[in-house]
Predict the 3D structure of the following.
Amino acid sequence: MRWLAIHLPDLPLEVFARARAAEAPLAVCVHRRGERILRCNTAAMRAGIGPGQGVGAARARCAELTIMPRRPAAEQEALEHLAAWSIRFTPQVSLAPPRALLLDVAASLRLFGGADALLAQVSGGISARGYQGRFAMAPTPLGALVWARQLGASAGTASWPMIPDLDALHAALDGLPLAALGLSARECEDLTALGLRRVADVLRLPRPGLRERLGSKRVDWLERLLGETPDPRPTFVPPPRFSARIELPAEVDLAESLVFPCRRLLGELAGFLRGRQAGVPRLDWRFGHAGRAATCFSLGAAQPLADPERWLELLRGQLERMELPAPVREIALAATAVLPLSPRSGELFPELARPGCRPDPALLDRLRARLGRDAVRGLALAADHRPERAWRWSEPGETGGGSARLDRPLWLLPQPVPLEERDGKPWLDGALDLGAERERIDTGWWDDCAVARDYFIATNGRGERLWVYRELRGRRGWYLHGRFD
């Protein structure tokens, strides 16, 4: 066993159904001799809807039925997102359009604890993303794909179709009907007219005659299926950026009701990031409306995140405060800054590590999601001697480029306050004791904000320490600039 096939028979329906938390009658239609139902969910089947039924008859049978036109582009996008997620199991992932993936898991079986354990993880992840796959393993990619389409097990099945070697593959294929070979209706009719009913009947035919009957392309396919000729598969390469969208089966009026489809998109993002061992510091959301401009907003994090639950928590805070200007018909998510996650080194003695050295990133993200990004900021030192310019707004936890002076107060007044002068000394509810030390600042001539001051740590009659200065130029007045704790 080398190849794992993931077949998604209901992909045309699931690209819409996964946006719904509760199951309501839903169907997908195609234009084939008029509009016909291609796929429908269980709720629609209970109402008497089935594949091949006309759209008009289906609506007459079930008034609550939602019918969506098939979206091949959305199916391809969903397949690529699942391929990006599958890279966590093996780097050798190939697309098998229109509804399947192929994974070369030869080197992954031991890592994930064997074939059963690997299949359980793959099937569970597929189901969590809103898809129902059918799975099979075989020594050739086409063998796994054919077996998954015909008899593949779905998620939750106790046993999985596993074909260990080429001999077992030949034996397994013998009993399958001709349709398992993907033949056209005309080809099946021709072979049936010759008395052939099973794949075993075809395999017994001489290859030269089979080439004349079916053509070289079909026989080459058959030889790759049996492992008689190589079948190289192009490896899927995920895009450098993430983008995904969900078209809602029905318009949504309340922002809080968008949590479920947004969770699906975040799950796809998490799979994309997991395969690349990366995170994103920012997500761009777009809610599409009918007949008006889309609602767009962004969510940011203090550090790159890959955890979908953390992003969902931030999104909930945004949605709780949001009033939609119109019902939402489509949701799109984009992440352009995909950054590798640095491995964290643990503490040798975690109980001795100093707590509170850095702000909690999760708390910062929650506050920013609820209050706005500009409402939660940090203070950092700046390399400037002027007190009013020795700090700047920054990202929380950023240290800046300056150095703190212990002989300066943390509390500066918004503007220096002029002080009364008596007998050559500053006065504030009494004469201030200036002490013997002073700090002279004479700088800023290059940016038209020059200062020339002598600063003193003054003490008033109540013992409070104040930071005052005297101008060295002009009127040479006294000013209160800060207070010490």
Remarks:
- The chain has a mean pLDDT of 87.
